[in-house]
Amino acid sequence: MLGPMTARLSLTRNGPDEAVPLVLLHAFPLDRRMWDDVLAELDDLPVITLDAPGFGSSPATEELAEAFGAPSEPTLTLYADAVAGTLREAGVDRAVVAGLSMGGYATLALAERHPDLLAGVGLLDTRAAPDPEAAREDRLRVAEEAAGPKGAGAVAPMIGKVLGTTSHAERPEVVEKVRGWLAEAPPSGIAWAQRAMAARPDRLAALEALDVPALVLRGAEDLQSSQDDAESMASALRDVEVVVVPRAGHLSAVEQPQEVATALRALRERCLRA
Ligand code: MLT
């Protein structure tokens, strides 16, 4: 049987090797390349990017579940445990963790299970509330499709929802880049993550229990997480900055990387002062 020392998420360290790095968790069904343009703005900071279980260069979810003693059914707690285990093995005991959408769900699971690891949190284009029943059923349908002959084609329609109206109207290169990422998404990772996201509980209480600086950010044109979602997370947090990024949709970090990088830099500075 593999141990947590051998099964770890694939990670890249960027910038100087300083304490309290910024750790960035990407959206579904992408991988850590999603952060490339943000990283270019933060090359003077210690930043770690990780691939989610079953995505990019990270191991298959079955391998991670066995190593971390997780239940075989998909759950975001495995993602959170794998992030914490991978960071600790890399010598990181405290970090500012920011996640976008699915990365935000994993950040919320980290807040619940590994709050001692967190010097601060960034919750980007995400929400603490669970899915309504119809959305859960839709996820399970997409999981079935991805596991079948459609494969990554099951997530191709997401292109209409993950980018804002500005990107669709004015930035064909961004649309094509994201379309390419969706086409490359691993079917097994898609199926696992959809089932894990469908099963996630309400995690507002985990935010209420946190006492570290926080950022809640969303693209002004985000069709998938609402201003109400952002406000509900912000009202649960004690020390929070709320940022709305103009001309960005759900993938704010891809659509307006400079604004997102500025907000993440400010978050880490607040965490170092706290
Ligand atoms: C994401 O961007 O990670 C997804 O939109 C998450 C979700 O489907 O809720």
TrEMBL record:
Residues 22-262 form the AB hydrolase-1 domain. It comes from the Bacteria. GO terms for molecular function: catalytic activity. It holds the Pfam family Abhydrolase_6. GO terms for cellular component: membrane. InterPro entries: AB_hydrolase_1, AB_hydrolase_fold, AB_hydrolase_sf. This is Pimeloyl-ACP methyl ester carboxylesterase.
